[in-house]
Amino acid sequence: MITVYNENRDCHLMVQGRAATNFWSRGRGLIGTSSLRDGEGLLIEPCNSVHCFFMSFPIDVLYIDKGSQVVAMDPAMRPWQVGKIHWQAHSVIELPAGTLERTGTAVGDRLSIQTV
Questions:
Q1: The total number of structural domains that make up the chain
Q2: Are strands 40-44 and 11-20 parallel, antiparallel or unpaired?
Q3: Which of 29, 32, 95, 116 is deepest in the core (most CB within 10 A)?
Q4: How far apart (Å, rounded) are the C-alpha atoms in residues 11 and 51?
Q5: Are the C-beta atoms of 92 and 116 separated by less than 8 Å?
Q6: How far is CA 18 from CA 60, 62, 81, 107, in A?
Q7: pLDDT 10s digit of each residue in the chain, 116 long?
Q8: Backbone dihedral region of 71: left (phi > 0), alpha (psi from -120 to 50 degrees) or beta?
Q9: Is the preceding peptide bond at 46 cis, omega within 30 degrees of 0?
Q10: Structural domain of residue 43, as residue ranges?
Q11: Integer Cα distance of 91 and 64 in angstroms
């Protein structure tokens, strides 16, 4: 299980996440998932762009660099939408839509990512 803590905002973004780290799991992402509950999410690495093809719900997307700093965000990315490529990003975190607004997460925030 993966947890993500926003050090700048003093809050958890994800407490019951999973990782997608191989070709097949990164390609599948959240396809086939019916929803994400608060605290759930997906860490995709390596990754610098995502799509929401075949998804049925919006998600918040964080693009983070190798130092776990937020370099870009796509709040409430809708199904069938394609995100931009962020060359400085090393990983992507997909969260329930509304998480970024609720927590005040912003570009430049430092995250702590742990496997528990």
A1: 1
A2: parallel
A3: 95
A4: 27
A5: no
A6: 16, 15, 22, 23
A7: 999 999 999 999 999 999 999 999 998 999 989 999 999 999 999 999 999 999 999 999 999 999 999 999 999 999 999 999 999 999 999 999 999 999 999 999 999 999 98
A8: alpha
A9: yes
A10: 2-115
A11: 5
For the chain, the residue count is 116
- Residue carrying the six token digits 């975190």: 93
Supply the DSSP string of 23-52, one letter for each residue. Answer: HHHHHHTTTT-----TTEEEEESS-S--B-
The CATH number of whichever domain residue 15 belongs to comes to 2.60.120.1140
- Give CA 1 to chain center in angstroms: 14
Q: Token pair of 93, please?
A: 């975190």
**Cβ atoms 65, 90 nearer than 8 A:** yes
pTM to 2 decimal places: 0.96
Two tokens, residue 45: 């690495």
Which of 40, 56, 48 is CA-nearest to residue 4?
40
Alpha-carbon gap, residue 21 to 41, rounded angstroms = 14
